[in-house]
Design goal:
The structure is a homodimer. By secondary structure, the first copy, chain A, is an alpha+beta fold. Chain A has 17 helices and 23 strands. Helices cover 29% and strands 24% of the residues of chain A. In chain A, a hairpin with a 7-residue loop joins β7 and β8. β23 (578-580) of chain A pairs antiparallel with β23 (578-580) of chain B. Chains A, B: Its main location: cytoplasm.
């Protein structure tokens, strides 16, 4: 037996008990005649004590030899600690060691195993198994486990069945790029790894499973932006015989349950917002509503005042920065530089101070008088002491720019509190999205999303205006889930695919099995998928998903710990009926 | 709202309630003036009634038009049923329909959606979404969900943390063939899909996670024998600071919990058997101990009696078939033909009848007298009325042959009862296994398994005799789980890999990250993995894992429903820096 207790469990009530503990040496203090060792395991830290008077000489020598991260086993007696440490759950006691065994020595770790480490991202990823020993990472992984257990319990209690769908499926040209897997047994053919189990969950509805869920890995071979992973985890859900309202209610209840179980927070009813309103008021389809700073559109009150920039702009829009009037001219210039960075791309920024006495001072006083500016304040909701920031230009671009500024300022102002949770449903998404490069429309959600009743016909006349039965769940400015009511009849699905540019032949080759299935009695159905990595990060009050993934990949899609991907044998390639053909 | 109740929920207490139901038309009986429709969903079947007197004429017409598997929604009143059906939970009532809506018509399904279907395996797999509507398949999937929920709850309550390990990892030449995934971003390099998360779970132990589990897909590109799948699911577990005994106790408790929760069966203590004994007594490392028929080795009592077949045999071994003396000569001849089939490969079979009066009649009376044969009976445990079947030859071969015969006879005799559960630990597996083709030893479990204490040295002198800290959990003659105590120091791991034929260079390239990790304070650790597909099938009283997988692949690794794998675009291949190179 390696241990009778964990390192987090001994209390004053255990005094005089003989115990066996195993763990890692967190650190030791050697006073010559006395040695204290902090012994660590997943459950906590217990102080061990060796002293000249009570410890045999050879054991003192052995204790002196212990380095950081050595793995040891000790037998000893729990005794009262002289100087108690009320910051540690085990702080009332220590263990006087009578037997010490070194189970495994350890080289000096390449970074310190402490909550605040001296290791950079790269070295921590290379030695991720050491990084996981650190409390923040360990606690994140335990937190992730707790969230998934709660999700499973909740959904299972609601009658959802977790069904495993296959990982070796078929490549589809729609959406992101697939990872593919050459089939040895089917020469020249490839499986694809699922971008999501979308079609399978729909087939489970056709199969009468009624309520399905799965916590499942999904794969996308995309050029990795920061904080994207080639493999990621979804809480994937689908229900039959439901309308949008039914789905929203179930998953609102699930999210409410998580917030309650994990943070003790009760949120009665999640607000809902139309996609169009989200774009108008926040420039963004996933607004962070923990704070205000809503957009005020200023076209009406800025036009025809001889300021050509605003006169020529499709949209003039501003926000009020609470207390922003304290910014110096230099600080405001820095802000202007910030919005002009290529990542944001604004051409400039107009600002207007709202002084404490209610007067205004703007960067465009030449064109606008107090009356004009008071209207700006009214529309943006600016109060005395605030700063109004105004951007202008093409609607989509300027909204994205002002949204980025709003988030940046809120972060600087401490308005994005990590212990505050503001969920929001965004509903009535457009069905299609115009790809500006190709001029083609593609499905905003995916090709299986149903248009709003009666809008199918508009696909021919005004495709961009067709709204979908599609919804996102937003939490603190992050999309944590999204879904839709699906098309469940072959004809509509065929029409839809035609509008997305599929030839009938391609539609049949790619999705024939699904459309065939629709002919054998498909129920109305819909669903939703949560991005688990992000959900867990946001619930954990953080934003970096990598910190909640045990073994993440870097921005080049590499696992630097195991050094993957890697070259494989010629023999292996031959068996798979492929050869390398490196493109320059 | 599509429904107020499910189709399995209405009882006499609901009489006079107005309800809304949705589901599939299971069948309808049309008596002209009256139409009954069985409406089905996941939860059950409810009888709907339409009749001339109470149903408007156009609705009668619509009801007449309903075909099997149409999806409909009805509003109606729950009424008492005239002829009650106590075989159905809803058999006391029916619903008099006041509103009927056809949500989706259905083509006639290619096989009947009944518990006993007329569809063969191939057609059912092509239309798996229809197959899933059938109770046996649906119930299997729900059963699988229940088992996994119980496993997760049990392990979570025991302090295990479910950690997701990556799917895009690195190919290793050891073990079965990997499925690989070309990396677009790392030209010419490949990921591999995990055959198991083995090294990652060990790294989690090095990382101090202490108790890990994961229900996870694994992948093996093997030539598919019957009832093997290229992707399969494991309950993967690992613990730190444990000895074999600790692991056996935890997972015995888990299995006991499952048997109790699922079948209400209490099994106090699982028996344990040495690998060597299992091979000697059952010819098999996964003996079915629901019944006896243990092997009796007869070399001592058959040699030197002028029967050259036995005299020259490495092993002469028999089993007593309970009540087998009733077999006619023809039946016994058929049995001899059975063991001589190429799949079994015996050269012949000697038999000996034990008559009711205690006398013997054997096929080798020329060589053996009553005294000799009475010893055979004693050693095999044969009683009056039994039949002793004896095979002889090379030890390994003859054991496998007699084991196959034992299982076949037990099946014919009805001794393998599907509602009886006989778990068994098989322990002390050999560390290495001789590959007879190459003459090389390879790891019987995997290269990370630790040899029994003090036996490492024997690797040089008598490698085949080295026993491992490895164990299997057997249930009803099936291996449902297996694991080992792992090597946790670099030196032993390096020695082990050398003995498995890895050059130091290869060992470093493949497993360097693991051996490096062992130098930074690796705790003693070990674990176990259950094959979930098989566990669920066996717990469900069945043996075919395919029946417990939602979307299985066929023996060529194809998903015939979605028609995968498939050819992919030239463009896609180019992006992945590969081209086809089909070997003839």
């Amino acid at each position: 037996m390696y241990r009778s207790h964990s390192c987090g469990e001994l209390r004053a009530s255990h005094i005089n008990t003989e115990v066996i503990l195993s763990g890692w040496v967190q650190k030791s203090r050697d006073k010559g005649f006395m040695i204290w060792v902090d012994l660590r395991d997943r459950y906590g830290i217990t102080q061990l004590i060796f002293d000249e008077e009570r410890t045999p000489k050879d054991m003192m020598e052995k204790a002196k030899s212990l380095g950081r991260e050595f793995v040891i086993q000790v037998t000893g007696t729990v005794i009262e600690r002289e100087s108690k440490n009320d910051k540690m759950p085990t702080g009332e006691i220590e263990v006087l060691v009578s037997k010490l065994e070194i189970l495994n020595a350890a080289k000096l770790p390449p970074f310190t195993i402490e909550d605040q480490t001296d290791g950079g991202e790269d070295i921590r990823m290379k030695y991720r198994y050491l990084d996981i020993r650190r409390n923040p990472v360990k606690e994140n992984l335990i937190f992730r486990h707790k969230v998934t257990m709660e999700v499973r319990k909740f959904l299972s209690n609601q009658g959802f069945i977790e069904v495993e769908t296959p990982y070796l499926i078929k490549s589809t040209p729609e959406g992101a790029r697939d990872f593919v897997v050459p089939s040895r047994m089917n020469k020249g053919q490839f499986y694809a790894l699922p971008q999501s189990p979308q079609t399978f969950k729909q087939l489970l509805m056709v199969g009468g499973m009624d309520k399905y869920f799965q916590i499942v890995k999904c794969f996308r071979d995309e050029d990795l932006r920061a904080d994207r992973q080639p493999e990621f985890t979804q809480i994937d859900c689908e229900m039959a015989f439901v309308e949008q309202e039914d789905i929203l209610n179930v998953f609102e209840a699930m999210t409410r349950h998580l917030l309650k179980e994990i943070h003790g927070i009760n949120i009665e009813k999640f607000p809902r917002m139309l996609y169009d309103d989200a774009m108008r008021l926040y420039g963004n389809d996933k607004p962070d509503i923990r704070f205000g700073m809503q957009f005020g559109e200023l076209n009406e009150v800025t036009k025809h005042k001889d300021f050509p920039v605003f006169n020529n702009a499709e949209l003039v829009v501003g926000i009020a920065v609470p207390g922003g009037n304290v910014y110096t001219r230099k600080e405001i210039d820095a802000l202007i530089d910030w919005v002009k960075r290529p990542q944001i791309g604004a051409l400039g920024m107009v600002y207007c101070r709202v002084n404490e006495d209610g007067t205004f001072k703007s960067s465009v006083d030449k064109f606008y008088d107090e009356t004009d500016l008071s209207k700006w304040a009214e529309i943006t909701g600016a109060k005395a002491g605030d700063l109004i920031c105004v951007l202008s230009g093409e609607t989509n671009k300027v909204r994205a720019q002002l949204s980025a500024l709003r988030m940046e300022l809120a972060t600087r102002l401490g308005l994005r509190k990590s212990n505050e949770f503001a969920p929001l449903w965004v509903v009535d998404f457009p069905l299609l999205e115009l790809d500006e490069e190709t001029g083609h429309y593609h499905a905003m959600h995916h090709p299986f999303t149903s248009p709003k009743p009666g809008q199918l016909e508009m696909l021919d006349t005004n495709p961009g205006a067709v709204k979908a039965n599609a919804y996102d769940l937003v939490l603190n400015g992050n999309e944590i889930g999204g879904g839709s009511i699906r098309i469940h009849d072959k004809k509509t699905q065929a029409t839809m695919l035609r509008h997305l540019g599929f030839s009938d032949e391609n539609a049949k080759a790619q999705f024939g099995f699904l459309m065939d299935a629709f002919e054998y009695g498909a129920p109305p159905h819909g669903g939703l998928a949560f991005g688990l990595d992000r959900l867990v990060a946001i619930l954990g009050g953080q934003e970096t998903i990598r910190d909640f993934i045990a073994f993440p990949k870097n921005n080049s899609g590499r696992d630097v710990m195991i050094d993957a991907p890697a070259f494989i044998d010629e023999e292996q390639l031959k068996e798979l009926n492929i050869k390398l053909d490196i493109q320059e």
